[in-house]
Design brief:
It is found in: Cell membrane; Membrane. One of its GO terms (biological process) is vitamin K biosynthetic process. Pathway: Quinol/quinone metabolism; menaquinone biosynthesis; menaquinol from 1,4-dihydroxy-2-naphthoate: step 1/2. It catalyses: an all-trans-polyprenyl diphosphate + 1,4-dihydroxy-2-naphthoate + H(+) = a 2-demethylmenaquinol + CO2 + diphosphate. The chain is mostly helical. It has a single domain (about 5-300), classed as Orthogonal Bundle (Farnesyl Diphosphate Synthase), CATH 1.10.600. About 75% of the residues lie in helices and about 0% in strands. It has helices at about 5-10, 15-35, 40-65, 85-110, 115-130, 145-165, 170-190, 195-200, 205-210, 210-235, 245-260, 275-300. Helix 4 (about 85-110) packs antiparallel against helix 5 (about 115-130), helix 7 runs antiparallel to helix 10 (about 210-235) and helix 7 runs antiparallel to helix 12 (about 275-300).
């Protein structure tokens, strides 16, 4: 019988910063605009978490029934490890998606932008077909595209739009940054799994690029994201001193990049990539908090 710890592992808690970070960044933009509305922001957090957890359980189910997780390097999965029956994991995933859809409808009804239903349907379909269906795009090396769009641009810009009705360019820059860091989380995960994914036919971007180039792309993703932080700090909407707020994210990103590219004992490979995966999530959260605090401080100075 599965324990609470097993279910938390199945939910992949370490990936949750990828869902809340764009909402946090979006909240900073709405604070600066003066349009933040607490109840809708809370619903946006709930929607993001439900979608992320649903994706994680759906991946657990789909990869498990395909046998992709039979020899994985990371923590054991519910389905692949035989801890929980596949049908139960699928039911949990669909429940999360259903609750996410319900929360999304409440948000749409409040803001009156019914065209957002199409965006919501697109997000749910992308969440399922990442590893689900006969031809999952996650097995074709397109997972990072979904992550960048929905856990970067859409989540950040959407958080701003449902509260203010507009999306300033700063939201797109912030969304691009958190989206790239979320892609780096996925890349770190897939670099770890290259040996097993290649055998099972899961052609992730990391598998297609190979270990060396996948590591370089991981570093490039973080570098561009940190560059977005510099852009946000040196805009008329924030004070240049706000660059200091991004230093924790810069520091963690630099350390992770070193561990990825190092040829010595500090090189992260195999199970040693798991801490890198976790700290990449912390990088995203630290970056989003920097956006929040910097734009909030700017709103106080106006």
């Amino acid at each position: 019988m599965a324990t609470v710890t097993d279910w938390l592992e199945g939910a992949r808690v370490r990936t949750l910063p990828a869902s809340v970070s764009p909402v946090i960044a979006g909240a900073g933009i709405t604070l600066w605009e003066g349009t933040l509305y607490g109840p809708i922001l809370a619903l946006a957090f709930a929607l993001a978490l439900l979608l992320q957890i649903g994706v994680n359980f759906a991946n657990d189910y789909s990869d498990g029934i395909r046998g992709t997780d039979d020899h994985r390097t990371g923590p054991p999965r519910l389905t692949g490890g035989g801890t929980v029956r596949p049908g139960v994991v699928l039911a949990v995933a669909l429940t999360c998606f259903g609750l996410a859809a319900l929360v999304g409808l409440v948000i749409i009804a409040w803001c009156g932008q019914w065209w957002l239903i199409a965006v919501g349907v697109g997000a749910l379909l992308a969440a399922w077909f990442y590893t689900g269906g006969r031809h999952p795009y996650g097995y074709m090396g397109l997972g990072e595209v979904f992550v960048f769009i929905f856990f970067g641009l859409v989540a950040t810009a959407g958080t701003v739009y449902i509260q203010s009705g507009t999306v300033p360019w700063q939201a797109w820059v912030a969304g691009s940054a958190v989206g790239l860091i979320a892609c780096a989380i996925l890349m770190a995960n897939n670099i770890r799994d290259i040996p097993t994914d290649a055998v099972t036919g899961k052609r992730t971007l990391a598998v297609r690029l190979g270990d060396t180039w996948a590591r370089r792309v991981y570093v490039l993703m973080l570098a561009v994201a940190m560059g977005c932080g510099v852009v946000l700090a040196f805009t008329p909407s924030t004070h240049q001193a706000s660059l200091l707020l991004y230093l924790p994210a810069f520091a963690i990103a630099a350390r992770n990049s070193w561990r990825m590219l190092s040829r010595g004992p500090s090189r992260a490979q195999g199970r040693a990539l798991i801490p890198v995966l976790k700290t990449t999530g912390i990088t995203e959260l630290a970056f989003a908090l920097a956006v929040l605090v910097s734009f909030w401080a700017s709103s106080l100075l106006v």
